[in-house]
Write a structure and sequence with these properties.
Rossmann fold; 13 helices; single chain; 47% helix; elongated; alpha/beta; eight-stranded mixed beta sheet
Length: 329
Protein backbone atom coordinates (compact mmCIF):
# COMPACT_ATOMS: atom_id res chain seq x y z
CA UNK A 1 0.00 0.00 0.00
CA UNK A 2 1.44 3.45 -0.85
CA UNK A 3 2.64 5.50 2.10
CA UNK A 4 0.29 8.34 1.25
CA UNK A 5 -2.70 6.00 1.56
CA UNK A 6 -1.57 4.84 5.02
CA UNK A 7 -1.21 8.44 6.10
CA UNK A 8 -4.70 9.27 4.90
CA UNK A 9 -6.17 6.35 6.85
CA UNK A 10 -4.31 7.16 10.07
CA UNK A 11 -5.39 10.81 10.26
CA UNK A 12 -9.15 11.29 10.27
CA UNK A 13 -10.61 14.04 8.15
CA UNK A 14 -12.20 16.37 10.85
CA UNK A 15 -14.92 18.72 9.68
CA UNK A 16 -15.32 22.22 11.09
CA UNK A 17 -18.41 22.28 13.37
CA UNK A 18 -21.47 24.00 11.88
CA UNK A 19 -22.28 26.49 14.66
CA UNK A 20 -25.20 27.97 12.80
CA UNK A 21 -26.89 24.58 12.65
CA UNK A 22 -26.34 23.97 16.35
CA UNK A 23 -27.68 27.41 17.25
CA UNK A 24 -30.71 26.78 15.07
CA UNK A 25 -31.38 23.49 16.89
CA UNK A 26 -30.97 25.11 20.29
CA UNK A 27 -33.34 27.91 19.28
CA UNK A 28 -35.97 25.41 18.16
CA UNK A 29 -35.57 23.46 21.40
CA UNK A 30 -35.85 26.64 23.48
CA UNK A 31 -38.96 27.72 21.62
CA UNK A 32 -40.45 24.27 22.15
CA UNK A 33 -39.73 24.37 25.89
CA UNK A 34 -41.16 27.91 26.17
CA UNK A 35 -44.26 26.92 24.21
CA UNK A 36 -44.72 23.85 26.38
CA UNK A 37 -44.34 25.91 29.55
CA UNK A 38 -46.80 28.47 28.22
CA UNK A 39 -49.33 25.72 27.44
CA UNK A 40 -48.89 24.23 30.91
CA UNK A 41 -49.30 27.68 32.48
CA UNK A 42 -52.52 28.28 30.55
CA UNK A 43 -53.80 24.77 31.36
CA UNK A 44 -53.20 25.38 35.08
CA UNK A 45 -54.24 29.06 35.17
CA UNK A 46 -57.71 28.51 33.68
CA UNK A 47 -58.98 26.13 36.41
CA UNK A 48 -57.27 28.23 39.09
CA UNK A 49 -59.10 31.35 37.89
CA UNK A 50 -62.38 29.40 37.88
CA UNK A 51 -61.67 28.23 41.43
CA UNK A 52 -61.21 31.86 42.43
CA UNK A 53 -64.25 33.53 40.85
CA UNK A 54 -66.61 30.54 40.42
CA UNK A 55 -66.26 28.44 43.58
CA UNK A 56 -68.71 25.63 44.10
CA UNK A 57 -71.74 26.70 46.11
CA UNK A 58 -72.12 24.75 49.35
CA UNK A 59 -74.71 24.49 52.12
CA UNK A 60 -77.58 24.64 49.62
CA UNK A 61 -79.39 21.83 51.40
CA UNK A 62 -79.21 23.82 54.65
CA UNK A 63 -80.80 26.77 52.91
CA UNK A 64 -83.57 24.70 51.37
CA UNK A 65 -84.28 22.58 54.43
CA UNK A 66 -87.39 23.27 56.49
CA UNK A 67 -85.53 22.20 59.62
CA UNK A 68 -83.69 25.50 59.83
CA UNK A 69 -86.94 27.44 59.57
CA UNK A 70 -88.44 25.22 62.26
CA UNK A 71 -85.34 25.91 64.37
CA UNK A 72 -85.99 29.66 64.14
CA UNK A 73 -89.69 29.38 64.83
CA UNK A 74 -89.06 27.05 67.80
CA UNK A 75 -87.00 29.86 69.33
CA UNK A 76 -89.74 32.37 68.53
CA UNK A 77 -87.51 34.23 66.12
CA UNK A 78 -89.66 35.84 63.41
CA UNK A 79 -87.76 36.05 60.16
CA UNK A 80 -88.88 37.71 56.96
CA UNK A 81 -87.49 36.68 53.61
CA UNK A 82 -86.74 39.66 51.42
CA UNK A 83 -85.10 40.45 48.10
CA UNK A 84 -83.37 43.55 46.82
CA UNK A 85 -81.56 44.71 43.72
CA UNK A 86 -77.93 45.80 43.94
CA UNK A 87 -76.41 48.67 41.98
CA UNK A 88 -75.71 46.57 38.87
CA UNK A 89 -79.07 44.78 38.72
CA UNK A 90 -78.01 41.66 40.64
CA UNK A 91 -80.87 40.26 42.71
CA UNK A 92 -79.89 39.35 46.28
CA UNK A 93 -81.93 37.45 48.83
CA UNK A 94 -81.87 37.26 52.63
CA UNK A 95 -83.62 36.85 55.97
CA UNK A 96 -84.41 39.72 58.29
CA UNK A 97 -84.69 38.62 61.93
CA UNK A 98 -87.06 41.30 63.13
CA UNK A 99 -86.69 42.68 66.64
CA UNK A 100 -88.42 45.96 65.90
CA UNK A 101 -87.91 49.11 63.87
CA UNK A 102 -86.54 51.00 66.87
CA UNK A 103 -83.75 48.46 67.56
CA UNK A 104 -80.16 48.61 66.19
CA UNK A 105 -79.31 46.25 63.33
CA UNK A 106 -76.37 43.96 62.53
CA UNK A 107 -75.75 42.61 59.02
CA UNK A 108 -74.03 39.20 58.75
CA UNK A 109 -71.70 38.37 55.85
CA UNK A 110 -70.77 34.76 55.12
CA UNK A 111 -67.59 33.28 53.66
CA UNK A 112 -66.89 31.99 50.17
CA UNK A 113 -69.05 29.00 49.05
CA UNK A 114 -71.42 29.57 52.00
CA UNK A 115 -74.74 31.39 52.32
CA UNK A 116 -76.92 33.07 54.96
CA UNK A 117 -77.15 29.82 56.96
CA UNK A 118 -73.40 29.91 57.63
CA UNK A 119 -73.91 32.61 60.27
CA UNK A 120 -77.24 31.51 61.70
CA UNK A 121 -75.62 30.91 65.12
CA UNK A 122 -74.43 34.49 65.20
CA UNK A 123 -77.85 35.64 64.04
CA UNK A 124 -79.63 33.80 66.85
CA UNK A 125 -77.10 35.05 69.39
CA UNK A 126 -77.47 38.69 68.32
CA UNK A 127 -81.25 38.46 68.08
CA UNK A 128 -81.36 37.15 71.65
CA UNK A 129 -79.23 40.14 72.67
CA UNK A 130 -81.85 42.52 71.27
CA UNK A 131 -80.63 43.29 67.73
CA UNK A 132 -82.29 43.09 64.36
CA UNK A 133 -80.17 40.83 62.18
CA UNK A 134 -80.00 40.71 58.40
CA UNK A 135 -78.44 37.59 56.86
CA UNK A 136 -78.24 37.55 53.08
CA UNK A 137 -76.69 35.41 50.38
CA UNK A 138 -73.83 37.20 48.65
CA UNK A 139 -73.71 37.38 44.87
CA UNK A 140 -73.09 33.97 43.25
CA UNK A 141 -74.02 32.27 46.53
CA UNK A 142 -77.16 30.63 47.91
CA UNK A 143 -80.34 31.89 46.23
CA UNK A 144 -78.85 35.19 45.10
CA UNK A 145 -78.05 36.05 41.50
CA UNK A 146 -74.71 36.74 39.90
CA UNK A 147 -72.19 34.41 38.29
CA UNK A 148 -68.89 35.45 39.82
CA UNK A 149 -67.45 36.15 43.25
CA UNK A 150 -65.20 39.22 43.58
CA UNK A 151 -64.44 39.20 47.35
CA UNK A 152 -65.47 42.79 47.92
CA UNK A 153 -64.88 44.54 44.60
CA UNK A 154 -68.62 44.43 43.81
CA UNK A 155 -69.82 43.07 47.17
CA UNK A 156 -69.02 46.29 49.04
CA UNK A 157 -71.70 48.05 47.04
CA UNK A 158 -74.00 45.06 47.60
CA UNK A 159 -73.73 45.62 51.36
CA UNK A 160 -74.51 49.32 50.96
CA UNK A 161 -77.52 48.36 48.83
CA UNK A 162 -78.58 45.96 51.61
CA UNK A 163 -78.43 48.80 54.16
CA UNK A 164 -80.54 50.98 51.87
CA UNK A 165 -83.09 48.20 51.40
CA UNK A 166 -83.63 47.17 55.02
CA UNK A 167 -83.73 50.83 56.11
CA UNK A 168 -86.62 51.50 53.76
CA UNK A 169 -88.48 48.20 53.95
CA UNK A 170 -88.38 47.82 57.73
CA UNK A 171 -88.41 51.56 58.47
CA UNK A 172 -85.40 51.35 60.73
CA UNK A 173 -84.97 54.35 63.01
CA UNK A 174 -81.28 53.75 63.78
CA UNK A 175 -79.13 54.33 60.69
CA UNK A 176 -75.97 53.05 62.34
CA UNK A 177 -75.25 49.42 61.50
CA UNK A 178 -72.98 46.68 62.72
CA UNK A 179 -71.28 44.22 60.38
CA UNK A 180 -70.20 40.72 61.38
CA UNK A 181 -68.31 38.66 58.81
CA UNK A 182 -66.30 35.48 58.51
CA UNK A 183 -63.42 34.90 56.07
CA UNK A 184 -64.46 36.55 52.80
CA UNK A 185 -67.35 38.17 54.66
CA UNK A 186 -64.89 39.66 57.14
CA UNK A 187 -62.82 41.13 54.31
CA UNK A 188 -65.98 42.56 52.72
CA UNK A 189 -67.05 44.06 56.07
CA UNK A 190 -63.72 45.83 56.47
CA UNK A 191 -63.78 47.19 52.93
CA UNK A 192 -67.38 48.39 53.41
CA UNK A 193 -66.53 50.14 56.68
CA UNK A 194 -63.81 52.07 54.85
CA UNK A 195 -66.33 53.70 52.50
CA UNK A 196 -69.81 53.61 54.10
CA UNK A 197 -70.01 55.78 57.22
CA UNK A 198 -73.25 54.12 58.31
CA UNK A 199 -71.13 51.19 59.50
CA UNK A 200 -70.63 51.84 63.22
CA UNK A 201 -68.87 48.63 64.30
CA UNK A 202 -67.20 45.63 62.60
CA UNK A 203 -66.60 42.11 63.94
CA UNK A 204 -64.24 40.42 61.45
CA UNK A 205 -63.23 36.78 61.85
CA UNK A 206 -60.43 35.22 59.77
CA UNK A 207 -60.11 38.03 57.18
CA UNK A 208 -57.46 38.09 54.47
CA UNK A 209 -55.36 41.24 54.14
CA UNK A 210 -55.15 41.13 50.33
CA UNK A 211 -56.85 38.90 47.76
CA UNK A 212 -53.70 38.85 45.65
CA UNK A 213 -51.57 37.82 48.62
CA UNK A 214 -53.88 35.06 49.85
CA UNK A 215 -54.40 33.75 46.29
CA UNK A 216 -50.66 33.48 45.74
CA UNK A 217 -50.17 31.82 49.12
CA UNK A 218 -52.91 29.31 48.24
CA UNK A 219 -51.45 28.56 44.80
CA UNK A 220 -47.98 28.13 46.32
CA UNK A 221 -49.43 25.55 48.74
CA UNK A 222 -51.36 23.85 45.94
CA UNK A 223 -48.41 23.74 43.50
CA UNK A 224 -45.17 23.32 45.47
CA UNK A 225 -42.76 24.65 42.84
CA UNK A 226 -40.27 27.56 43.01
CA UNK A 227 -41.93 30.98 43.11
CA UNK A 228 -40.07 32.17 40.00
CA UNK A 229 -41.50 29.25 38.01
CA UNK A 230 -44.96 29.83 39.48
CA UNK A 231 -45.10 33.59 38.86
CA UNK A 232 -46.32 33.43 35.22
CA UNK A 233 -49.07 30.97 36.17
CA UNK A 234 -50.36 33.10 39.05
CA UNK A 235 -50.18 36.25 36.93
CA UNK A 236 -52.16 34.56 34.15
CA UNK A 237 -54.72 33.14 36.59
CA UNK A 238 -55.30 36.63 38.01
CA UNK A 239 -55.60 38.09 34.51
CA UNK A 240 -58.24 35.53 33.53
CA UNK A 241 -60.09 36.03 36.83
CA UNK A 242 -60.11 39.80 36.26
CA UNK A 243 -61.62 39.33 32.82
CA UNK A 244 -64.23 36.78 33.87
CA UNK A 245 -65.33 38.55 37.04
CA UNK A 246 -65.10 42.07 35.63
CA UNK A 247 -62.94 43.25 38.51
CA UNK A 248 -59.32 43.62 39.62
CA UNK A 249 -57.79 41.09 42.00
CA UNK A 250 -55.15 43.60 43.09
CA UNK A 251 -57.83 46.13 44.10
CA UNK A 252 -59.41 43.78 46.66
CA UNK A 253 -57.20 44.83 49.53
CA UNK A 254 -58.61 45.31 53.05
CA UNK A 255 -55.13 46.17 54.31
CA UNK A 256 -54.81 49.10 51.89
CA UNK A 257 -58.08 50.69 53.09
CA UNK A 258 -57.76 49.85 56.80
CA UNK A 259 -56.43 53.32 57.53
CA UNK A 260 -59.73 54.82 56.34
CA UNK A 261 -61.81 52.89 58.87
CA UNK A 262 -62.91 55.07 61.79
CA UNK A 263 -65.42 52.80 63.54
CA UNK A 264 -64.48 50.23 66.22
CA UNK A 265 -63.13 46.93 64.85
CA UNK A 266 -62.85 43.56 66.56
CA UNK A 267 -60.55 41.20 64.69
CA UNK A 268 -60.69 37.48 65.49
CA UNK A 269 -58.34 34.85 64.10
CA UNK A 270 -57.54 31.22 64.81
CA UNK A 271 -53.95 30.42 65.69
CA UNK A 272 -54.32 27.05 63.94
CA UNK A 273 -55.59 28.65 60.70
CA UNK A 274 -53.42 27.30 57.89
CA UNK A 275 -55.53 28.71 55.07
CA UNK A 276 -55.56 32.40 55.99
CA UNK A 277 -52.73 32.63 58.47
CA UNK A 278 -52.98 34.93 61.51
CA UNK A 279 -50.44 37.38 60.09
CA UNK A 280 -53.22 38.69 57.81
CA UNK A 281 -55.25 39.91 60.80
CA UNK A 282 -52.14 41.19 62.52
CA UNK A 283 -51.27 43.33 59.49
CA UNK A 284 -54.81 44.74 59.36
CA UNK A 285 -54.75 45.44 63.09
CA UNK A 286 -51.50 47.41 62.74
CA UNK A 287 -52.98 49.41 59.84
CA UNK A 288 -56.14 50.46 61.74
CA UNK A 289 -54.58 53.73 62.77
CA UNK A 290 -57.80 55.79 62.71
CA UNK A 291 -60.25 53.29 64.20
CA UNK A 292 -62.04 54.57 67.29
CA UNK A 293 -61.23 51.26 68.96
CA UNK A 294 -59.49 48.10 67.81
CA UNK A 295 -58.75 44.70 69.27
CA UNK A 296 -57.23 41.44 68.02
CA UNK A 297 -58.44 38.22 69.63
CA UNK A 298 -56.31 35.20 68.71
CA UNK A 299 -58.15 31.95 69.42
CA UNK A 300 -56.15 28.88 70.44
CA UNK A 301 -56.64 25.70 68.37
CA UNK A 302 -59.08 27.40 65.99
CA UNK A 303 -58.73 26.57 62.28
CA UNK A 304 -59.98 28.72 59.43
CA UNK A 305 -63.41 30.27 60.11
CA UNK A 306 -63.86 27.94 63.10
CA UNK A 307 -63.22 30.38 65.92
CA UNK A 308 -66.78 29.99 67.20
CA UNK A 309 -66.41 26.23 67.58
CA UNK A 310 -63.14 26.64 69.46
CA UNK A 311 -64.49 29.30 71.82
CA UNK A 312 -68.28 29.01 72.09
CA UNK A 313 -68.65 30.45 75.57
CA UNK A 314 -66.35 33.37 74.84
CA UNK A 315 -68.30 34.21 71.67
CA UNK A 316 -71.58 34.27 73.58
CA UNK A 317 -69.98 36.73 75.94
CA UNK A 318 -67.86 38.90 73.62
CA UNK A 319 -69.99 39.24 70.47
CA UNK A 320 -73.17 40.74 72.00
CA UNK A 321 -71.13 42.93 74.36
CA UNK A 322 -69.14 44.36 71.44
CA UNK A 323 -72.24 45.46 69.53
CA UNK A 324 -74.08 46.63 72.66
CA UNK A 325 -71.14 48.86 73.51
CA UNK A 326 -71.00 50.45 70.06
CA UNK A 327 -74.61 50.31 68.83
CA UNK A 328 -76.52 50.48 72.07
CA UNK A 329 -79.32 48.18 73.18
Amino acid sequence: MPLTDLHNQAVPNWKRPNWKQWLRRLSVAAIGVAAGYALVSVAVAIPLSALLVSPRRKRRRHLESLRLRDYLWARRIPYRETQFISYDGTKLTGWFLDRGWWRPTVVALHGVTGNRTSLIRFGVMLYAAGFNVFLFDGRAHGHSGGRFVTYGYHEVRDVSAALDHISRKFRLRDQRFGLVGISMGAAIALQTAARDLRVAAVWAESPFSSLQKISREYIAELLPVPSTALAPTTWLAELIANYRGNFSVSDVNPLAVAGKIVCPVQLVHGLADEFVRPHHSQAIFDALVNAKEKDLWLVERATHARCYRAAVKEHHDRLPKFFRRHLGR
